[in-house]
Amino acid sequence: MAQAQRVAVLGLGGMGQPMAANILRAGLSTVVWNRRQGPARQLGEQGAEVADSPADAVRRADAVITMVTNGDAVRSIAIDQGMLAAMADGAIWAQMSTIGAADTERIAGLVREERPDVVLLDAPVAGSRGPAEHRQLVVLASGPEQVRERIAPVFDALAQRTVWAGPLGAGSRLKLVNNMLLVFLAEGIAEAMALGHSLGLDRTAVLGALQDSPLVSHWAAEKLERIGRDEYSPQYPLSLGLKDVNLALYEVDIDRFPVATSLAGQWQRAVEHGLGDEDVTVLARALQH
């Protein structure tokens, strides 16, 4: 079966924009749409075709990527704005937004009812804006095996590797696992830095000790470096981190996960204090005051 040659990317936020740029750089014909026109125009200057609507973006696409904030946004694009109805027969829809297991099942139901000729893949990504810019994401994909070869050039263009997790929905469940570890890492970094502050240690010394520690991953080391610069512009915004924790807790008995439940409460308070649009690293600053 022919590989995907024309790709439509819908949603050009902190993740979607660099993902679309990498697909474009890989030489694939790329059409983009975004609610705000600025990011789409920037990609248009790099050679992408800019569509006026989700429906226009997908009409001739072999593969469609949605990368938006939540399940409501996915449904709005797919149904209210006509994307699903406009897709070509046999096209692949790679739903790459982090929307959780329940909303993924709802989207799958819509596709079965409205467009059974469209092939839905559940394929969220592990990584934030920095890894997206450098093609270091990991695609956590799930869905029919027969389209894996077709979608491979697209996933290879935007990620360092793809993990096929199983049948449709497994990718979103695996993303919840990935993000639970991620939020604990963010919280651990913040609390370690706050503890150093409370113990009267020089922040530079604490950062120096942690940066080369075998306990610190590349992702954590980059976060520590940003804390050292007091740089809290969003790569993984705190509000999205909170959303991810809540998506995971929605699927389980929260009494079995008391630490995650407590973390969600703490992050909720931080968001209510106006920190939601900052990177999760802002917790290190918040805990010191």
TrEMBL record:
| Segments forming domain 6-phosphogluconate dehydrogenase NADP-binding | 7-166
Q: Which InterPro entries match?
A: 3-OH-isobutyrate_DH-rel_CS, 6-PGluconate_DH-like_C_sf, 6PGD_dom2, 6PGDH_NADP-bd, HIBADH-like_NADP-bd, HIBADH-related, HIBADH-related_NP60_sf, NAD(P)-bd_dom_sf
Q: Which Gene3D superfamilies match?
A: N-(1-d-carboxylethyl)-l-norvaline Dehydrogenase, domain 2, NAD(P)-binding Rossmann-like Domain
* Domain of life where this protein originates: Bacteria
Q: Which UniProt keywords apply?
A: NAD, Oxidoreductase
Q: Where is the 3-hydroxyisobutyrate dehydrogenase-like NAD-binding domain?
A: 169-286
The protein in question is named 3-hydroxyisobutyrate dehydrogenase
Task: Please give the organism.
Answer: Plantactinospora mayteni
**Organism lineage string:** Bacteria, Bacillati, Actinomycetota, Actinomycetes, Micromonosporales
Q: Its gene?
A: mmsB_1
